[in-house]
Specification:
It contains 8 helices and 8 strands. It has 186 residues and is α/β, with parallel strands linked by helices. The strands form 2 sheets. The chain has a 6-stranded parallel sheet with strand order 3-2-1-4-5-8, sandwiched between helices. It has a two-stranded antiparallel ribbon with strand order 6-7.
């Protein structure tokens, strides 16, 4: 049986990064005979993985890990356009990435790849860390809590991106599992 390739992009979101990493490992194990995961990390994502002491673990546990140099290096957007991947998953996805997508700004590796994927009819899946308006509490790398207020403007961008063609947005890692189940009937 031929394995399918998927692109999993990580942005600079600390919120949900630890749970996302655990999910990546679980998905990789569950679908090891069906799926090859290519990990793409934004510049900010690289910083966040370092802060949460996950960068070494990602490198050790995934064979294909690429770090952003600029919006076209590595050439993820081209590989997405040429349908080399079944889909592009961005998890976790920062509010900055969502805002850029809402405004169609493709000036990073990940925003460029998402926009090109949308145009090329490649399924795009996003797990934004800011999903509902209101107050949320997150943990920072030292274990302390940080209280954030998610604004109407933040959530308006999430809704706008969620209404774009070939794009699915979900709130938590359950959406990641559903995405893989739907594509690979694991």
């Amino acid at each position: 049986m031929t394995t399918k390739k998927i692109a999993w992009a990580i942005t600079g979101a600390g919120e949900k990064i630890e749970k996302t990493y655990e999910t990546m490992l679980d998905i990789q194990e569950k679908y090891k005979n069906d799926v090859e995961i290519y990990v793409y990390v934004s510049q900010a994502g690289q910083q966040v993985l370092k802060y949460y002491q996950l960068i070494k673990k990602v490198k050790e546990n995934f064979e294909k890990v690429y770090f952003e140099k600029n919006s076209n290096a590595p050439f993820l957007a081209g590989d997405i356009q040429m349908h080399k991947f079944e889909f592009l998953l961005v998890a976790p996805c920062t509010s900055n990435t969502i805002a850029k997508l809402a405004s169609r700004i493709g000036d990073t590796l990940i925003t460029n790849a998402v926009i090109m994927g949308q145009k090329s009819q490649v399924p795009i899946y996003l797990m934004p860390v800011d999903f509902k308006e209101g107050v949320t509490v997150t943990k920072i790398p030292n274990g302390n809590e940080l209280v954030l207020e998610l604004t109407k403007e933040d959530i308006d961008c999430v809704r706008k991106v969620g209404n774009m063609k070939n794009t699915t947005i979900f709130e938590d890692v359950d959406g990641i599992y559903e995405t893989f189940e739907n594509h690979f009937k694991g």
